[in-house]
Amino acid sequence: MNLVYQQVVQETLDQLEKLLTHNHRQQKELVSQLSGPIKEPSREQPAPSSYQQPITMYLGRFLKPYFKDKLTGLGPPANQETKEKTSRMTGCLDDRKLKMKRWESWQKTLLIHSVTRDSLRRQIQPKLSKVDYLSQKLSSAGETDRQQLREQIDSLERDIDLLR
């Protein structure tokens, strides 16, 4: 199963690589479109290099507040609807109104036991799967292989008992 999952992950990585290169190509095309047409060099000016500097865009003007005062850089004052909305949001999430409830001792004990059982199950499960596999193999194996398989099964069962 591990090998199958590795193949699936590798195929997904390959697909992501293709998408990433496609994305980079599209970004370059977009930047070249935004920078405008390339001017033909005049005879008086030296020929520019083949690399054209992309337009640097300041993304701050696309973020909130959308409309800013040129002098202060601040947005407009809040209207009545915005004030009500913010008062409702802060009223719901007021830290003073939220009460912190402590865990009771029986809840802590239950959590500890559950985590321990889950950890034990995660450690034992692969060994149990291997025992099942070896048991199936034992039923169809020859006499010489049976002894080795029984030793492996016994070893795994001892490991399981030690974990428990």
In short:
This protein is 63% helix and 0% strand. It has 164 residues and is mostly helical.
Describe the structure.
The chain has helices spanning 2-34, 80-92, 105-140, 143-163. It has a domain at 128-164. The chain is 63% helix and 0% strand. With 164 residues, it is an all-alpha fold.
Percentage of residues assigned to helices: 55-70%
- Poorly predicted regions: none
Structural class category:
mainly alpha
Please count the beta strands (DSSP E, at least 2 residues each). Answer: 0
Instruction: List the helices and strands in order.
Output: HHHH
Shape: flat
* N-to-C span: 26 Å
Individual helix count? 4
Radius of gyration: 34 Å
Write the layout of secondary structure elements.
Blueprint: H1 2-34, H2 80-92, H3 105-140, H4 143-163
Which short descriptors sum up this protein?
164 residues, mainly alpha, 4 helices
